[in-house]
Amino acid sequence: MVRYVQDFTEGGREQADLLGGKGANLAEMTRIGLPVPPGFTVTTEACRAYLATGSEPEGLERELAEHLAALERAAGRRLGDPDDPLLLSVRSGARYSMPGMMETILDIGLNDASVHGLARTSGHEDFAWDSYRRLIQMFGTTVMGIDGALFAEALARRPDPGQRRLLVEDFRRIVRERTGEEFPQDPAEQLRRSVRAVFSSWNTERARVYRRREHIPEDLGTAVNVQTMVFGNAGPDSGTGVAFTRDPATGLQGVYGDYLADAQGEDVVSGARNTVPLAELERLHPECYAQLCEYMERLERHYRDLCDIEFTIERGRLWMLQTRVGKRTAEAAFRIAAQLADEGTIGWDEALDRVGGEQLARLMFPRFDTAGAGEPLARGVPASPGAASGAVVFDSAEAARRAAAGEKVVLVRGETTPDDLPGMVAAQAVLTSRGGKTSHAAVVARGMGRVCVCGAEAVEIDVAARRFTVDGTVVAEGETVSVDGSAGAVYLGELPLVGSPVMRYFETGERQPGVVDAVARLMEHADATRRLGVRANADTPEDVERARRFGARGIGLCRTEHMFLGERRRLVEAMILAEDDTGREKALAALLPPQREDFTAMLEAMDGLPVTIRLLDPPLHEFLPDHTELAVRVASAEAAGGEPDPHDVRLLSAVERMHEHNPMLGLRGVRLGLVVPGLIALQVRAVGEAVARRLRAGGDPRVEIMVPLVDTSDELRLVRDEVDTVLAEVSRETGVEVTCPVGTMIELPRAALTADRIAAEADFFSLGTNDLTQTTWGLSRDDVEASFFSDYLERGILQDSPFETLDLQGVGRLVRIAVEEGRAARPGLKVGVCGEHGGDPESVHFFHQVGLDYVSCSPFRVPVARLEAARAALDPGRARSRTA
Q1: Could you confirm whether 834 is annotated as catalytic?
Q2: pLDDT single digits (tens) 662-707
Q3: One of 67, 834, 845, 857 is an active-site residue; which one?
Q4: Which of 33-37, 301-305, 639-643, 731-735 has the lowest mean pLDDT?
Q5: DSSP collapsed to 3 states, 190-259
Q6: Largest CB tally within 10 Å, which of 2, 281, 319, 334?
Q7: Is the CB of residue 351 less than 8 Å from the CB of residue 525?
Q8: Active site includes 848?
Q9: Given 124, 285, 440, 845, which residue is catalytic?
Q10: Whole-model pTM?
Q11: How high does pLDDT run on average in the chain?
């Protein structure tokens, strides 16, 4: 028979799928002997059953009653007892941390009778009535669906703690007026309805948004943790706090966290009251502080990682309420991983698994140049590092609206709540006037990689007037501010950005203590670990030089069309407008020297490493002026009674002659090379002469010629014959033997499905996943990303853009077919990828899994790909389907 409830004494952290992260860790702390308030966990299986049917699974009510009875026997108190009541908390606890996204109800068991018992046993009547009002407020909003603003307004009218009894009456009246029922007095009913409410909170909009953002599966469900209440708001000898075993912002070792005297945990994480640093606890409660430090050390040793801990002190006694492996910034992730490896706590392989490519990319982001900026407008807690500027907005909806219109925004709030998540996603940075490093804003921003400054107390926010004020300086909505999440500073206006130390390390190799040294050592281990090669997509000598500095071991894609832009566009126009073979050959001859110079410089910069040069790919009309612009120029000249420029007339005629309804599926790529005489020969000759020049100079050029948009083996065979002919001519003319492997891009579904035939003519494959995604999905990237993609992502139809993270079910299957069938026909066939998916962390794991030889991406993504290639080698099964 399925068990839906499990006591804390029965489980452990290995049961996170069943008990959720919070429940599994509560069980683990219980198992290792830490002081955890007794309780039990309702499993994720029960949640899934409830969500599937809309009702509690059979047997759950009985199990709840049995575990509650056992809890009452152990405590020597009964739930709702009018003389000495046992009170409970009900908290969500999903497999993966979703801070603030689901529901919590505290003080269950209080009613009109038991509140008097709590007052007598605690000796604090205000405390008892405050606990009761908290229950009604949480239960009312969470379980009964009442607008929380109604309770907040009533609380604002009675701020005096001595008015809590009257406030309870206000709250009960709100419940009665808004729901037509009285606040439930039966503690068992309170418990059952609270458990159901936590189950239902799995499907709230904010929880869905967060899961989509963090790529958490929709079908996991949440566990529910029912636990004996301990009270941090029981008087001056009580309090609650959050502690980190290392600084989650920087990774530095020490005592980090927040403490709030005479408060419950929600007061800390909500940011509603400003906390004191955790170190202040040593003065307030030295014995509890010493115990806490001991428990923190034990937990970090036990979990072998940064731990995030919630605790409560009740009348001088310390209780551990939660622990988990803590969220951290990118800087902290690298520093902590290297520290733990140095300490011998983990190995360097595991250290690599503790960091990720997206975190590395964040460390490469620029920072503010504050020289000449003057004093900051305001200072606060540096909660999530980075630098970002944007227009000030004061609510989530406005942030989302402006961001959708392409504007960069900074979300400014007193404190954030889970309902602010869409605005935090849309914003470049978050600024709050209350809260610390453990507030909702800080935790969520760190997890999302958003810049965040919290607790900027000088910022006085007037939401109604859409402005904030700092010492007389007024900043209205729409004005620009710059937020420095590393320094905890806010500046008026937009500050210039400068490169990060990590970026400087990749550019120059310059190492310095701290995060740069941690990155350098982890990258060295990554390069020694990975199997997958990493190349770069680069089209100029400057790009090639940068790619090599960033660690690229070759060029996976050099797009020759980029050499025809700028001033050289006129040379292409001359080729297109040529009226006979002589004119076309003359134009092509003029294009040869600049291409040869470019290729020579690129081969010198990447000497000794492979350089894959793709023959011309886009349709020729892309090298001509815009049709509308030309037509207006010609028509305007005629309307003015004059003669239009003959060159414009010829260009307009050529543009109209070459017009295609769908040019990206028209005369481009290999088709263009086969139809336009001399076009392939021009490019191959430029390559061959550059190779000969480098060989004569004592270099080691390793060129690969790649043919784009191939559909059939016959196309590739014809191009290959022409390449061999031209290279033979170059060899005779220069007296230097020039040979180059010839391969193709697999970027059309037909090419992938006939890879065995195409492989017969190819020395290598390069998967062009950008076009392969477009042609497989039937989508034009430039159009859909600006039209309906955002709606698809918002509604969960897509988890990611398939242009950013490879669609494993569709495009990935074609990739697998191309690799397997290509190598079956030609054993040892070299296969790489040159779409931008080559720099996407999730996609890199898949490419490793299917056996590619290398990935190629933009130079700035090369370090990311190097790191993820190593992580893929350590965990080859990690790639998973991300597109439904």
Answers
A1: yes
A2: 777 888 889 988 888 888 999 999 999 999 999 999 999 999 999 9
A3: 834
A4: 639-643
A5: HHHHHHHHHHHHCCCHHHHHHHHHHCCCCCCCEEEEEEECCCCCCCCCCEEEEEEEECCCCCCEEEEEEE
A6: 334
A7: yes
A8: no
A9: 440
A10: 0.80
A11: 90
